[in-house]
């Protein structure tokens, strides 16, 4: 996002809080604690930026947009009440049901007695989710009713996530291809971005534990003709209209995690923001000025805005630390970034990195998002993997099969 914002002809300076080693090369980075509303508001008051864009879910769920709006600042992102589409899975499911928007069957439960009562309505495998934000870790797919009850117990007691869940959602297990369908909204109108497909598992062939995302690709071929219009009508517009009717209009990025099932697209989850690593691939395909589009959302004039996209494809391959999503070492020097950036069509986006003098060091589980565009998915992937061949840090891991589902379909 910082990269796309910095490219805008409307922007003279980007300030990023807190930023990272890669962002520091294009923006002024300021330390900030994302849990501390006062320090974030204080920073905004000191900087007086022309536009504030809220990236992550935690400050959105704390109501940073409401706090900044109250002080008269221009801010892109949903209010606390609208961000509940992401911050409470129970709220999101009940909202979808109230507005007849396609989603799997579910039960929202407040204790084990309610789980035990609801469980007989579900067939294994059963999806068990903690209600609140869990950074992608709050979802358990249970092979039996018995293990689903155990998982719910673990979520209620806090033994599974470290924090006790107040509500647990049981869900029908949906099968199909998963698509990330993101839109911009000004609260009344929505405009779709191009579709993307994430790869959540750590291992090749979609095996092993879930991660924050190990790679993503975006091409127009991912959705059959007419599908974008179907999703806009039955899911996105219905959601934007429903939120406005309930008095909590949703302005910001509405990220729909969809399962393309035999009975059509079904909503798995919403995010209230740009997702990672989808954003890296999507924004590399965006030919329009991102800041102009986000300002149209803030000003309620998105219906006049159209987004232009580069044809072809984009792909992002995530390079992670050895051991991720479990424990891993940090502080390891990263080499080859300059050579990687010279590969045609490539941008190396940083996630868990930090800058120490001239050196870039690892500082997180997912370290880099090596992203490339090309005239086809094959070309975009080949550029991304060529760039990865230039980069090195001790224990660097990446999946070599990003895009495998579409490549298999095409073969
Ligand atoms: P969520 O955080 O709700 O998106 O869930 C994380 C991942 O779990 C999703 O990206 C899916 O791969 C999987 N998942 C979540 N809900 C379901 C479901 N009802 N059926 C099948 N898979 C699911």
Q: Indicate the percent of residues in helices.
A: 25-40%
Largest sheet: 5 strands, antiparallel
Low-confidence stretches: none
Radius of gyration: 21 Å
Bound ligand species: adenosine monophosphate
Q: What is the residue-mean pLDDT, rounded to a whole number?
A: 95
Beta fraction: 25-35%
Oligomer: single chain
Question: Which word captures the global form?
Answer: globular
Strand order of the largest sheet: 11-14-17-22-19
Structural class label: alpha+beta
**Count of helix runs:** 14
Distance between the termini: 34 Å
Description of the molecule:
This protein has 14 helices and 22 strands. The protein has helices at residues 2-6, 37-47, 57-62, 64-70, 84-87, 89-98, 112-118, 145-157, 227-245, 278-285, 290-298, 337-341, 377-390, 404-410; strands at 15-16, 28-29, 52-53, 75-76, 106-109, 126-130, 139-142, 168-172, 177-186, 190-192, 197-198, 201-203, 207-210, 215-219, 251-261, 264-271, 313-320, 333-334, 346-350, 353-356, 359-362, 366-374. The chain starts with a helix and ends with a helix. The model has no long low-confidence stretch (mean pLDDT 95).
SSE layout and pairing:
Blueprint: H1 2-6, E1 15-16, E2 28-29, H2 37-47, E3 52-53, H3 57-62, H4 64-70, E4 75-76, H5 84-87, H6 89-98, E5 106-109, H7 112-118, E6 126-130, E7 139-142, H8 145-157, E8 168-172, E9 177-186, E10 190-192, E11 197-198, E12 201-203, E13 207-210, E14 215-219, H9 227-245, E15 251-261, E16 264-271, H10 278-285, H11 290-298, E17 313-320, E18 333-334, H12 337-341, E19 346-350, E20 353-356, E21 359-362, E22 366-374, H13 377-390, H14 404-410
Parallel strand pairs: 1-2, 3-4
Antiparallel strand pairs: 5-8, 6-7, 6-8, 9-10, 9-15, 11-14, 12-13, 14-17, 15-16, 17-22, 18-21, 19-22, 20-21
């Amino acid at each position: 996002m910082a990269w796309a914002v910095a490219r805008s002809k409307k922007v003279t300076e980007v300030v990023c809080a807190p930023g990272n080693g890669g962002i520091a090369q294009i923006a002024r980075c300021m330390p900030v604690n994302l849990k501390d509303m006062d320090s974030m508001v204080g920073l905004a008051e000191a900087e007086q930026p022309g536009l504030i864009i809220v990236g992550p879910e935690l400050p959105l769920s704390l109501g940073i947009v409401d706090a900044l709006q109250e002080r008269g600042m221009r801010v892109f992102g949903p209010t606390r009440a609208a961000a509940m589409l992401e911050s409470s899975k129970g709220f999101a499911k009940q909202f979808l049901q109230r507005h007849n928007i396609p989603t799997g069957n579910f039960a929202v439960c407040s204790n084990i007695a309610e789980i035990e009562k609801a469980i007989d309505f579900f067939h294994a495998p059963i999806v068990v989710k903690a209600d609140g934000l869990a950074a992608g870790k709050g979802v358990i797919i249970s092979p039996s009713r018995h293990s689903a009850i155990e998982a719910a117990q673990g979520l209620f007691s806090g033994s599974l996530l470290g924090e006790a869940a107040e509500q647990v959602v049981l869900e029908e297990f949906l099968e199909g291809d998963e698509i990330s369908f993101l839109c911009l909204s000004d609260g009344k109108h929505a405009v779709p971005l191009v579709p993307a497909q994430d790869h959540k598992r750590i291992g090749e062939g979609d095996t092993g534990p879930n991660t924050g995302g190990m790679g993503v690709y975006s091409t127009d071929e991912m959705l059959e003709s007419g599908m974008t219009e179907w999703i806009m009508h039955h899911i996105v517009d219905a959601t934007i209209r429903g939120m406005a009717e309930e008095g909590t209009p949703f302005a910001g990025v509405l990220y729909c995690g969809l399962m393309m099932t035999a009975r059509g697209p079904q909503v798995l989850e919403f995010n209230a923001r740009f997702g990672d690593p989808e954003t890296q691939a999507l924004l590399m395909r965006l030919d329009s000025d991102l800041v102009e589009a986000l300002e149209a959302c803030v000003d309620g004039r998105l219906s006049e805005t159209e987004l232009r996209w580069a044809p072809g494809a984009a792909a992002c391959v995530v390079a992670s630390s050895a051991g991720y999503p479990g424990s891993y070492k940090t502080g390891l020097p990263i080499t080859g970034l300059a050579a990687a950036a010279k590969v045609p069509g490539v941008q190396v986006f940083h996630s868990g990195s930090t800058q120490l003098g001239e050196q870039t060091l690892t500082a997180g589980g997912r370290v880099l998002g090596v992203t490339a565009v090309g005239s086809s998915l094959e070309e975009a992937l080949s550029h991304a993997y060529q760039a990865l061949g230039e980069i090195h840090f001790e224990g660097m891991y990446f999946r070599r099969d990003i895009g495998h589902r579409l490549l298999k379909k095409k073969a």
